[in-house]
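#struct-queue
[09:14] JT: dropping the first one here, sequence first, then the structure tokens:
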Amino acid sequence: MIRNILYEDKNIIVVKKPAGMDSQSSSSFAPDMVSEIKKHIHSQYPQSGEPYVGVIHRLDKPVGGVMVYAKTKKAAAALSAQVQSRKMKKVYMAVVCGRIVDNVENFVDYLLKDSRNNVSRIVEKGIIGSKRAELRYQIIDSMEIPEPLALVEIELSTGRHHQIRVQFAAHGLPLWGDSRYNPRFADRKNPGESLALWAWKLTFFHPCTGKAMTFEVQPEVRMFEKFLKNET
């Protein structure tokens, strides 16, 4: 059964997705967020039939953090419209490898998804199938232990496949623990070296009342502790 429900009413449910769980229905036998939410709703209203769960945005399987799901088609349409109009604000924390020159920066690139290999890469503008990817980051803290590392806060303007991971890697700042885009971790299986990326803050307007809502969950990946333990 789903745990860590941050908010719920008849229209939406806001949850903390654990790292390592799919954010939408999966073809594997492992639990996924949609299935778990359906079980939760069914346990509350067992006579109501198959629950509706609308996926509004996604997180990569290794990434945990705040997510909102719709419980009605009307709520799903309203929340999806906020995503399209960029009224829904998704803010992440990440630990990146390398020395960052600018404390605040925008990345604007064009990404092409390779579905067969489940990766994306940056390509020239105009390549068929490519999509514009934009994000803004600012440095929260940096250190050398012994290599240069930085804790960054990232706000997405677009939501592309593996966007944060691909863009930072392409700009010479791959994420700590990223076995797909950081060559340093490509052959490592140590579970203590989890991907240091977390969806820590989500802001949107309630699809029915219009009320602004913000939810925050601090990162639960070990690497973040090196930075955040001194801020509490």
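[09:21] JT: and here's the second one, same format:
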Amino acid sequence: MIPIAPSNPAHHQAIARIWNDACNAMTGSHTLDITPRLAQFNLGRASGATQAGRFAVDGDGNEVGYVIASAQGKSGWIDSIAVEPATQRAGAGAALLAWAEDWLLGQGCTFARLGGSLRPFLPGYPRELGRPDWFTHRRFEVGKPDWDVAADLAILRPYHGSAGEAPAGVEARMALPGEEAALREFFVRAFPGRWLYEYDEHLREGGKISDYAVLITPDSGAPRIEAFCMTTMADSLRPLDRFYMNTLPRPWAQAGPLGTSETLRGKGYAALAINTALASLRARGGRGCIIDWTSLTDFYAKFGFRKFREYVGMTKRLG
């Protein structure tokens, strides 16, 4: 095994090749193909986290498998693991996984989650790959599933929910330059965990504030952000590869995560934020759209989104 170099373009290409070959052999299709851009982005530095990876190489020095792991505090992730079809069942995958688990233990992690990391390749194990028993035989435990849901924005109609159109004094639109601090204040107040972290990372790396839809309400005479919905298109910081939309009509688009402050939940304001995000994506030419990594499939069905891909949640106690 040799280390993966995060800034090496040849390593980005090798990761995409190995992943695509492995998934194509298991599904008989290209539905889970990625490009080297996703590997490059996900090997970038995540604040407060550490990451490492290894290639398995054959006798001729060719990369035939890889694993990437990351850690933050006691949280550990197997970000991605794959082996070329011709090399499978020869022990390379088991050796790579064992290396990753040992590395996570060395970082002080007590659990390893398959997928779902701070720069996720995917939320969990894609159900369509089959063979989750490869992981359960290695003491991974199966948890609740998550879903991606999909729709064609060209034929989608807004669902307004109980709020209907925006009430008087409430403004729903894409965020504007200069509102970075106001949106951060909302995350600190309403979602101080992962979504705040991801927002800070988005701005740190040069992401656009206009990728966020916001809902603004009067508060003692001063406007305040009370809901958000993030969006992604080809010109966004996040690669669209991460959402595996190869069977959807182009141009691709993505929405989520979405959140409303606790005081406004249950009033239909989430629908206003979603409709604003989807209208912006449609205005920019988006068609095939994913709302990713959710268990709220019935909620998003009201907006015309159908179940698209299921992910199996898997975790393992280390040591």
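[09:30] RK: nice, looked through the second one.
[09:31] RK: DSSP finds eight helices and 15 strands in the chain.
[09:31] JT: good to know. The two ends are 22 Å apart (CA to CA).
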